[in-house]
Amino acid sequence: MTDADAYKHLSGTFVKVSAPTPYVAHVELSRKPVNAFHEPFWTELGQVFDKISKEPSVRAVVLTSALPKYFSAGIDFAALSLPNNGSDPARSAFELREHILGFQDCISALERCPYPVIVAVHGIAFGLSVDIVSACDVRYAASNATFAVKEVDVGLAADIGTLARLPKLVGNHSLMHELAYTGRNFSAAEAEKLGLVSRVVEGGRDEVVASALELAKLIAEKSPVAVVGTKHLLLHARDHTVRENLEYTATWNSAMLQTQDLVDAVKAAQKKQKPAFTPLGSKL
Predict the structure, then answer these.
(1) How many Å apart are CA 168 and CA 193, to the nearest integer?
(2) Model-level pTM greater than 0.90?
(3) 3-state helix/strand/coil string of 215-273
(4) Rg (CA), the chain
(5) Which of 12, 140, 196, 279 fits as disulfide partner to 56, beta carbons 3.0 to 4.6 Å?
(6) Long-range contacts, stretch 166-169, CB < 8 angstroms, 24+ apart
(7) CB-facing half-sphere around the CA of 176: CA atoms within 13 A
């Protein structure tokens, strides 16, 4: 599977998908001029990732922006429309809650995608950008990236994933609180200090995208059974106790250790060759 258009059918109006190398899906955000998100954009992002989740030939996903200076400016407030049942505050709250839950579900599609999602951030990455980045498994930033948890500056607490996921991702909770309370800009270097990103790549869009694609290519060479299982078990560990995860892992691997991939990997290692693994199935 080497055709760059192999995943083109998964694309939408604002979210483009290609296959730059075998088994790697490259997802690009593309809504000019600044990748500001309105409801059709974030809905489409969730739909695209849900479709990728059902593609058994995919083994790794890279999420980037197609725009040269922006990852995303965040929410498009000019196009934002919130449900409002003017006759009763309680009924308005029910409607708004469903709206927020639906929005959260679209961004959580990145996390529930069974394949590792690597995000490559460059330029401006404000507001919703941090919600999106925190839903990814591996996070790279170009040295020219600038982040901000902007929601506090528009009178609300971030509600699409930043505040739910950051405490489980980062090691510097003092800095996390500072950034969430102030809404100030922070650099790629500070994002690395926070623990939001694992690598800062010198340069801009081209450099960080190339690094992310190289990592995806390496992951795609591994057993898809092993990689999908690893992501699944890591997410389970995040949300459960050590004892619960150990027991769950024993149950999971009681099935997965029977894979042919294990046999093929051992044989290839003995012959000092790279193993070749088959897709997970015809359709997931």
Answers:
(1) 15
(2) yes
(3) HHHHHHCCCHHHHHHHHHHHHHHHCCCHHHHHHHHHHHHHHHCCCHHHHHHHHHHHCCC
(4) 20
(5) 279
(6) 166/130, 166/134, 166/196, 168/238, 169/134, 169/195, 169/196
(7) 19
